[in-house]
Structures are given as structure tokens and as C-alpha cells.
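Ticket #4471: structure output looks truncated?

Reporter: J.K.
Steps to reproduce: submitted the chain below (252 residues) through the standard prediction queue, then opened the result file.
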Amino acid sequence: MLGRARTLCIWHDVECGSYAADLPLWDELAAQAGGPVLELGCGAGRVALHLARRGHEVVGIDTERPLVDALQSQARAEHLAATGHVADATDFDLERRFALALAPMQLVQLLGGSPGRRAMLARIAAHLRPGATLAAAIVEPHHLPEVDPGAEDGSAPLPDVCELDGWIFSSLPLAVRDGDGPLRIERLRQTVSPTSELSEEVDIKSLDPLPLATLEGEAADAGLRAAGTASVPATDWHVGSTVCLLEAPAHE
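Returned output as attached by the reporter:
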């Protein structure tokens, strides 16, 4: 039986590891920033390692130690300027400032609503250099098509699949739902053991509804100025997103 730490890293790699639609935007912003990058919700390093391979210094934080350990291990193996810390995005202190902060893959919609976002924005504001930028990806209702895994017109997505040491891991998008409450992204996770035993569960990610104007207003209360938006395109496996750009004051 696989332990929780290893399973957590495997599902992260299966469902997120190959995602690259947002990387060109982070590349562009990091090049413009010209200084160290802070990534919130870094996971196993999909973004942090990518940017470090392009010569940027990156510091990531995540609440899951196995994922942070995976980032650290890979960074050491490749001699990259990427480090990870086990920390909560709503309550961290790295005792330094950054030229750019990134919150990819709807992290700001996983914080339990406005109190969590406001706490995160306050901590980010304390870690940004004068004139530095926070880029936060959010999903809005217009990004949310219904996913029909039984479609017969060839439009149904294929599962993400990984084989490791005789184990097979498959994750199939089931639905993306927009109701009166949180936005729900549902995936069917199936695991086949080396002895062909099948287990499965439905994994549900609940995203707080978050209009762009609401995030900009909360950021203003933390001293961050709205500085426009960018877009991340949808893929067969992931919804698109709006990236809210927020700037720290140019002078203390």
C-alpha cells in the first residue's frame, strides 16, 4: 500500500504536473520583474522549478510538506535556485521581499472566502518590494463549460494517466459546476494496484466565487493597486482563468 505522502505527490503530478498553459505568462512576468519570485501554493514545484530553470530565484510556500520536500529534492538534483517552505498563504513571514508574487491555479479561491483572502493579501503586501506585482489566477463563471465524460462527438476529455512501480493512476474530469455556492470541479480518481485491484473516488475541488472587482477591492484595502489583467487559456483538462495583476506602492 502506498503511503499518504507518496500518494499526494503522485496525484499532484498526474493532475497538475503536465499543465503548462499558464507558464508563458509567468515567464513574461518574471522576466519583467527582474528579481526574486515568491510562489504561493507551490506544490511540488511545477511553476517554481520551471522559472528556476530559466535563471530566476524562486521561493515557494505550500501547506503540504511532502510536496515541498519534492520541490526541494528536485531543485537540489538540478542545482536550481528554488527553495520551498511549509507555510500557510494566510500566515507566513519569510523576512524578505520579492519583485513578483504568483498565486497560480486559483489558489485565492481556496482560502475560505474573504477573511482568508484578506489575510493572504496582507501578508503578500508585506513581502513585496516597492512597485512589485502580485499575479493571482481566478476562475470566473464564463470560464466554466460543462464537462460531459460520456459525450459521443469526440469532445469528451481523456483521463490523465500515470504508471509507477506497477501502479496505475487515472484522473478523469467529470464536471465543472457553477451553482449558488462554491464552484465545483469534479474528477474521478482511479487506482489499479500491481495485483489489478481497482479503487476509485470522486475528488471535488470547491472554489470560492470571486468576481474580479471583489478581489481588486480587497487588495486595495491591503494597499495593492489594480494594474490590469491577463488571461490563461483553457485546455482539454483545465478551465481557463483571469489573472488579476496588483501592484505594491512604488514608494514606502
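Triage note (M.O.): checked the attachment and the full C-alpha cell line is present. The two ends are 54 Å apart (CA to CA).
Status: closed, working as intended.
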